Amino acid sequence: MKTLLKRSMLVLPLMMSLSLANPAESASGVVMDFGAVDTLVVLDKTDAIAALPMKNLPKYLGNIDTANMKDGGGMKDPNVELYAEIKPGFIVISPRLGGRVEELSKYAPVLNFTANADDYYASVQKNIVELGKLIDAEDQANKALKELDQKLTEIQKEIAQSDKRALVMMHNAGNTFAASESGRGQFVHEFMGVKKADNDPQERQAIDAEYLNKVQPDVLYIVDRSSAIGQDPLDVAVFTKEVVSNAKTKDGKEINVVYLDPTLWYLSGNGLMSMEIQAKEVLEGLK
After folding, report:
1. Which pLDDT score, from 0 to 100, does residue 27 have?
2. What is the DSSP string of 20-67?
């Protein structure tokens, strides 16, 4: 999932460009945000994707038909030469390209799919509706949002009934550290409502047996950045044996280790499909 950054969802004067765009003329564009991609899948509008980051495609989007799509470049390294060639009707970006809006706007109006941490779900909804407008599917987007809202509300109600406390952990290049205050952690705790094991975490607190015995989480959610970007993944079995098994919950039980889908949680999020899958993964970890 992308971080819940405090950036504007629609940037520069491009909001006007987007709102004035004729959907019939801009029905196909470059989509560099996987939350936007999975939203188009749910809306049955993948024909609106002219290009996307092929090499970074998350596993949960593995069934998407990319035969008529081009490689839009890396998530941080867009193929602007391609954009100049295909002349897309729009470009949808993730936070990773937030600093290149002015450059990318030379090729097409830009929709920044970044969510706002201060008003998370409202900003997610707005982004999805704006994307729907671009492809002449605003009504479908609003309908799909209502369905998603119902599903998320039911999951949140189930989570609220659980007394289990959790810790969100990030793995990167052999290092493991607490990430409950990250965007992914905020999704788990602030949005989904999972209770925190540590209410006053230090930034990038190392995860070891001593710390786990101190905060005593019932659940340890793992986001594996290394695996998501194609590097050596965390050996969960070894980590569990050498670290987690040497700590217990407040009730003296084993800590439940939940290895979240790395490509979903690190590379995507904030879409109609990704949010539902993430919410279900969070709930499943509490059972």
Report:
1. 77
2. H--TTTS--EEE--HHHHHHHHHTT-GGGEEEE-GGG--GGGTT---T
pLDDT in tens, 43-74: 999 999 999 999 999 999 999 999 999 999 99
Strand partners, 221: 168, 258
The pLDDT tens digits for 34-45 are 999 999 999 999
Dihedral sign for Cα atoms in the order 208, 213, 283, 285 = positive
pLDDT for the residue numbered 21: 47
Pairwise CA distance, residues 93 & 72, whole Å: 11
- Report if residue 9 sits inside a domain: no
Helix, strand counts (H, E) of the chain: 12, 10
CA atoms of 75 and 113, how far apart (whole Å): 13
101 shares its domain with 35:
yes
Same structural domain for residues 20 and 116? yes
Give the number of domains in the chain: 2
The DSSP output letter for 245 is G
- Residue 249 vs residues 95, 132, 146, 237, 259: alpha-carbon distances, Å: 36, 45, 38, 19, 18
Q: Which H helix or E strand runs over 93?
A: strand 91-93
**3-state class (DSSP) for residue 168:** strand
Together in a domain, 96 and 223? no
Q: What is the CATH number of the domain that holds 231?
A: 3.40.50.1980
Buried b (16+ CB within 10 A) or exposed e, 163-175: ebbbbbbbbbeee
- 201 and 227 share one domain: yes
Residue 199 pLDDT exceeds 70: yes
Average pLDDT, the chain: 92
- List the domain range (segments joined by +) for residue 188: 161-285
- The domain boundary, picked from 118, 153, 188, lies at 153
Give me Rg for the CA atoms of the chain.
Answer: 20
Among 124, 153, 182, the domain-final residue is 153
